Amino acid sequence: MKIAILSKGRYLYSTQSLLKACQKRQIEVDILDYSRFRMCLQSGNNLLEYLNFSLDDLTGIIPRIGHPQTQISSYILDFFEQKNIVSTISSYGLLLSRDKFRSLMKLQFHHLPIPNSIFPEQYGSLIGVVEELGGYPVVLKTNGGTHGEGVFLIKNKRELQRQVQIFRSRNELFFLQEYIAESKGRDLRVFVVGGEVVAVMERKSAQGSFKANLHQGGTATAISIQTEIQEIAIKAAKIMGLSVAGVDILISKTGAKILEVNASPGLEGIEKATQIDVAGQIIEWMIPQMSTD
Ligand SMILES: Nc1ncnc2c1ncn2[C@@H]1O[C@H](COP(=O)(O)OP(=O)(O)O)[C@@H](O)[C@H]1O
Ligand SMILES: [Mg+2]
């Protein structure tokens, strides 16, 4: 068995945690910088190359892909998929998870609960859209954001016009979503590995913010959740094509709503909050997948 962790940050907590989990189990492991792959397509042959490193004996990969590198990395994952190498995420799942509205569509088509969301007409007024979502405040999101950076709580028409104008001038896709006020800045990060929930944390936003992201100053604590919510998270990860996923869920007055499904969820917050060896769980899931017998 030989695992490659695809990561640009050798010393990042998540990368190190996965590395140690492999070493602890005496599994051969390497960290490969996914921006250094070369892909060659030549008559009847295709080659994936990584510096002077041989990829031939790899049995598994753990892609930890940063947002700016999503597309190129999905090509690399396609190569590995063609070779039937075990991966924690599929190429399709990576692309889908980085496309927020499309993910919500997919989840909704599979009857999973999501907040009401509207992708508006490209031009024209958004007043009717805000009304359909229950009026202000309303949540405005850029389609490809992360770490809470492209998520805005819009309180009036002026704020809406200002932010929409910014998105439109940058040709950035965006959509509107009902604001789940009763979640009070809390959300759940449900960590799914191989069809099971392995760890859950509740994140609470910092004072003055409605975003629970740890990158926005949110704090995390371990929490246990009902089987019903666990099942929603497990189903969401599966539909998204992700064997390892961080499912973000808000609790509304009508029940759980999935906000998004992350394909490279950070391990630091969840391992520290829950004291669960999530990296170890990921490797434990991979081992039987990689064995040939
Ligand atoms: N519709 C909503 N109602 C209430 N809070 C929300 C809503 N959407 C997002 N949030 C808050 O903002 C945070 C970031 O939103 P999310 O869609 O997960 O974007 P990102 O990918 O940037 O993390 C969530 O974790 C949650 O705390
Ligand atoms: Mg999120």
Contiguous uncertain segments of 5+ residues? none
Per CATH, the architecture of the largest domain is 2-Layer Sandwich
Q: Care to count the β-strands?
A: 15
The total count of helices amounts to 9
Spatial extent as radius of gyration: 20 Å
Tell me what you see in this structure:
The two termini are 12 Å apart. The protein is an alpha+beta fold and 293 residues long. Helices cover 32% and strands 28% of the residues. The strands form four sheets. Strands 13-12-11-14-15 form a five-stranded antiparallel beta sheet, with helices on both faces. 39% of the residues are buried. The chain folds into three domains: 2-95, Rossmann fold (3-Layer(aba) Sandwich); 117-179, Dna Ligase, domain 1; 182-282, D-amino Acid Aminotransferase, Chain A, domain 1 (2-Layer Sandwich), CATH 3.30.470. It has nine helices and 15 strands. It is globular, with a radius of gyration of 20 Å. It has helices at residues 13-24, 70-82, 91-97, 100-109, 127-132, 157-169, 227-239, 268-274, 278-290, and strands spanning 2-6, 28-32, 37-42, 45-50, 60-63, 86-87, 117-118, 138-142, 151-154, 174-178, 186-193, 196-204, 219-222, 244-252, 255-262. The model has no long low-confidence stretch (mean pLDDT 96). Helix 1 (13-24) packs across helix 9.
SSE layout and pairing:
Elements lengths: L1 E5 L6 H12 L3 E5 L4 E6 L2 E6 L9 E4 L6 H13 L3 E2 L3 H7 L2 H10 L7 E2 L8 H6 L5 E5 L8 E4 L2 H13 L4 E5 L7 E8 L2 E9 L14 E4 L4 H13 L4 E9 L2 E8 L5 H7 L3 H13 L3
Helix pairs in contact: 1-9, 2-3
The site of adenosine-5'-diphosphate has 25 residues, from β8, β10, β14 and β15.
